[in-house]
Structure formats: structure tokens, C-alpha cells
Amino acid sequence: MKKLLAGLFLLGSMLAFAAGEQRVPIEKMELNQQTSLVYVQGQQTPFTGTVEKKYASGKLEATMEFKDGKLNGKTLVYNETGKLKTEENYVNGALEGVSKSFYANGSLEFETTFRNNIKEGVEKHYSPSGRIETEVLFKNNVANGVAKQYNQDGKLEYETMIVNGKREGISKKYYPSGKLLSEVTFRNDKEEGIMKAYFETGKLQLEIPYKNGQVDGLVKRYDENGQVVEQATFKNGQEVKTTK
């Protein structure tokens, strides 16, 4: 009996707390420009509770949780059909943890991790059907690391190294079978050196020389026996001579 009474008391306390939570329409809120804290109009204490924003139709558009005048907790944004559009988590006014955005059909579109308002970790993009399309690694709010793109079957289609937001190093493309299709080196986000393309058997099919992002030099195409079947000379991206 004592346990039952204790449980009922705890439940009653929780319901009382929930009932006492402030839920205020956004039209009654104001921002102090000097402190960047949010208040209910006419009050002197920074707001703690939930702010609601509604469409002209009266349907809920967003809820934002605040503590001591700063975003703290979940911020949820909905479309007019009631489906969730974005979900963010804040701690002391800064984005923290996984933020999500959704397609109109409700399926996940983007998933991004934040640490103290800064992107930190893998950002993922999904197709409307739920298939992962891209993965990009962020460090200190900038893309840094391997970026990957996947085909409709969910297999790796393209990968490249990114340094400070720019492609740097080897980039590779793959056949649906997983075999290497092509590879090229990037320097400061521009192709540099020989791009090589391969038959699915692994034999060399094409060589294209790049200089500062433009085709420059002798381009060669091979047959599956390794014989050159076509070649052309380029200068600054323009073909100047073809040999067959």
C-alpha cells in the first residue's frame, strides 16, 4: 500500500508540474537585443517554458523550448499537414546533438550532428524512400574527411577526400558491381594529373591528363586488349589534335 501511495503521489506531482508549464504564443514574446534573452512581454524574468507558433489556419507550426531566456531543449517545426519538418536540440542557446530535417512525406532527409552550435561528425542525406545518398564528415563546422555518395541500390558510387571544404587527394568512382570505374587526384578542388578510367574487368580504358582543372596533354583511349584505339591532344581544355 505504501508503494502504491508513493507512486500515486509521484504521478500527481508530475501532472502538476506538466500543468504548470508555460506555453506561450510567439506573438507575446520579445527579444532583448542587448542580452539576446527572450521574455514574455511585460515581464522582467527571462522566459522558461515552451513557445508556440501557429499558421494562419491555426494549425501548429513550431514549438520551441526555453530555459532562462535561451533555447534549451527541443525545437520542432511542422508543415501544415502536421508532419514534422525539422527537429533540433539546444543547450543553453546553442545547437547540440543530432538535428534532423524531413521530407513532406515524413521520411528523414538530413541528419547532422552539432557540438556547441558547430557541425561535428558525419552529415547524412537520405532519399525520399529512406535510402542513404551521401555522407560528409564535418570537423569544426567545415567538411573535412572522406565524403561518400551511394547509388540507388545503396552501394558506394563515389568517394573523395575533402580538406577544409575542398576536394584534395584521390577521388574514385565505382561501377554498381563495386569495381573501380575511375580515379583522379584533386588539388585545391581542381583535377590535377592523370585521370584513369577502367573497364569493369579492371583493364585500363582511358587516360586523361589534367592541369589546374582543365584537360591538358595527350588523351588516350584503349580497347580491352590494351591497345590504343584513339588519342587526342588538348591544351587548356581545348582539343588541338586528334589521332586515330
Write the layout of secondary structure elements.
Elements: H1 2-20, E1 23-25, E2 29-31, E3 38-40, E4 49-54, E5 60-67, E6 70-78, E7 84-91, E8 94-95, E9 97-102, E10 108-115, E11 118-119, E12 121-126, E13 132-139, E14 142-150, E15 156-163, E16 166-174, E17 180-187, E18 190-191, E19 193-198, E20 204-211, E21 214-215, E22 217-222, E23 228-235, E24 238-243
Describe this structure in words.
Helix content is 8%, strand content 59%. Residues 1-20 have low confidence and may be disordered. The chain is built from one helix and 24 strands. It has a 22-stranded mixed sheet that branches. A two-stranded antiparallel ribbon has the order 2-3. With 244 residues, the protein is mostly beta strands. The protein has one helix at residues 2-20; strands at residues 23-25, 29-31, 38-40, 49-54, 60-67, 70-78, 84-91, 94-95, 97-102, 108-115, 118-119, 121-126, 132-139, 142-150, 156-163, 166-174, 180-187, 190-191, 193-198, 204-211, 214-215, 217-222, 228-235, 238-243. The longest helix has 19 residues, at 2-20.
